[in-house]
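// run 5 | inverse folding | seed 20
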């Protein structure tokens, strides 16, 4: 499928209201194809990242995922000049490391792969956190494969973050699911955005990194005090605990050779269903991914994502938001609350 056809599909998907059903379905099929092509590339990068991570910490978590259609369309709408062919995070790999030292070691070890595949971009949202409070390191590579025009030039994004940063992102995504909004991209009520930005700034003190914009004028003590106040005022613990306690999951299909996992979250029922697929069934998994997204376009209580990990047992620690698991975040908030209490 030509890149021009992919570009056209992106334009249709971000403006569905002005296109007929047949054009929309054709565009969705083009997106399925585009994600499938990225699957060929993401596997190669995943092996590279996993090998480098294991040199640093064998227990660290490395996962890969293909970006969800709603996220792709939302991004195209937020950035009108962006095209589907130039979106750099359709294929994403995430490494969750213990601490900042491990994050920095991995970042440096991955830079050498910029010789084989073009190193396109580097975003350090740890030293320069976003206003939302999002913190992570992003490395973007352009895949080089002159003999395969289909994959040559595709972009892959590698995210590196600490466990603490991951716990914050998990809580944001879990709360976003229940609020039916996307707090990470600036949507939602101001009170929720304020709380999570403040809390990320408090977490940055625990890691000795720069504070979140709009809160750099606050001292450590004042940041903790305000974060705890917002935590209690908005009943964050009771909300997140209720989500975590209610979550159940069912593994419908699994074998020793499975590599890909389709996570289906029914928020209303607090249930996640997992379907797993072997390596040679990636195209089938991606088609099912698109089918489920298409069937649940208007259902805000349903989310689906296609991911891969070394082991199905690592799914919950890698994607806790799909299991409504915010226990780690609540534990980290207790650190903030304990220090705040000691200052009184």
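// decoded
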């Amino acid at each position: 499928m030509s890149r021009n056809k992919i570009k056209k599909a992106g334009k249709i998907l971000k403006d569905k209201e002005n296109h007929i059903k047949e054009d929309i379905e054709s565009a969705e099929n083009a997106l399925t194809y585009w994600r499938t092509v990225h699957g060929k590339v993401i596997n190669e990068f995943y092996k590279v990242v996993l090998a480098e991570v294991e040199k640093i910490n064998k227990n660290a978590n490395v996962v890969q995922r293909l970006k969800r259609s709603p996220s792709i369309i939302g991004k195209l709408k937020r950035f009108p000049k962006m095209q589907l062919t130039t979106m750099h995070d359709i294929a994403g790999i995430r490494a969750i490391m213990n601490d900042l030292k491990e994050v920095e070691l991995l970042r440096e070890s991955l830079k050498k792969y910029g010789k084989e595949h073009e190193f396109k971009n580097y975003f350090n949202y740890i030293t320069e956190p976003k206003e939302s409070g999002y913190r992570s390191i992003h490395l973007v590579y352009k895949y080089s494969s002159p003999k395969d025009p289909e994959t040559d030039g595709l972009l892959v994004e590698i995210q590196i973050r600490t466990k603490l940063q991951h716990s914050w992102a998990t809580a944001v995504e879990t709360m976003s699911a229940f609020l039916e909004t996307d707090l990470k991209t600036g949507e939602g009520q101001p009170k929720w955005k304020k709380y999570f930005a403040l809390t990320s700034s408090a977490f940055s003190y625990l890691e000795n990194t720069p504070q979140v914009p709009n809160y750099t004028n606050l001292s450590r003590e004042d940041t903790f005090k305000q974060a705890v106040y917002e935590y209690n005022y908005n009943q964050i613990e009771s909300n997140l605990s209720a989500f975590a306690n209610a979550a159940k999951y069912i593994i419908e299909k699994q074998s020793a050779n499975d590599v890909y996992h389709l996570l289906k979250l029914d928020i209303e029922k607090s249930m996640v269903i997992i379907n797993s697929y072997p390596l040679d069934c990636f195209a089938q998994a991606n088609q099912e991914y698109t089918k489920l997204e298409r069937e649940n376009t208007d259902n805000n209580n349903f989310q689906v994502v296609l991911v891969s990990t070394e082991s199905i047992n690592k799914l919950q620690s890698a994607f806790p938001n799909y299991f409504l698991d915010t226990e780690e975040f609540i534990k980290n908030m207790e650190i903030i609350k304990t220090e705040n209490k000691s200052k009184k």
